[in-house]
Amino acid sequence: MTDLPPYYFRIKENGAAVFRVDTDNRQRRIEMEPIAVVNLRNGNIRPQGERALTEEDHAAIRDWIGRRQALMARREIDDIHRTIDHLNLTAQWAQSQATDAQLDEVTDALLLAMHDLRSVLVRRKAERLMRGAEDSSR
User: What's the distance, CA 40 to chain centroid?
Assistant: First the structure.
């Protein structure tokens, strides 16, 4: 049997259920003992039942939290880059393929979403420029 990792993390909406993986039993079956629940939003690690987590458990969970947060951050920025591509494809579609009925269906929602996005981006850029001007004047 292939060496399995000592822990398995079942991804949940905002974290994971953590299992200790055990193959050292008579039947050589894979047993997964639930040991903790992790909340990525606040970093809480909550032992399952009346279990006391070892320092090794805590270290493995903290390591997973760091790797998972880095992965989620990479995915988030990748999603934004895909959104830019979708906006470009949407502009091309609206210009060259969309029927009047299709445009009637999506125009208001798109205009509002783009207006909201533009407002946020302009405000945030102005904030960055102001901070940069303050930093350079010191």
Answer: 10
First to last CA, the chain: 64
Domain boundaries, the chain: 1-70, 99-138
Q: CB neighbours (10 Å) of residue 72?
A: 10
Task: Please give the model's pTM, rounded to 2 decimal places.
Answer: 0.75
- Nearest 5°: phi and psi at 133? -65, -40
Q: What are the tens digits of pLDDT across the range 74-133?
A: 999 999 999 999 999 999 999 999 999 999 999 999 999 999 999 999 999 999 999 988
Let me know if 60 is exposed, middle or buried by CB neighbors in 10 A (0-12, 13-18, 19+).
buried
* Dist CA 96 CA 87 (whole Å): 14
Cα separation, 90 vs 109, in Å, equals 13
Q: How far from the centroid of its chain's Cα atoms is residue 120's Cα?
A: 21
DSSP secondary structure letter of residue 51: -
Q: How many Cβ atoms are within 10 Å of 17's Cβ, its own excluded?
A: 16
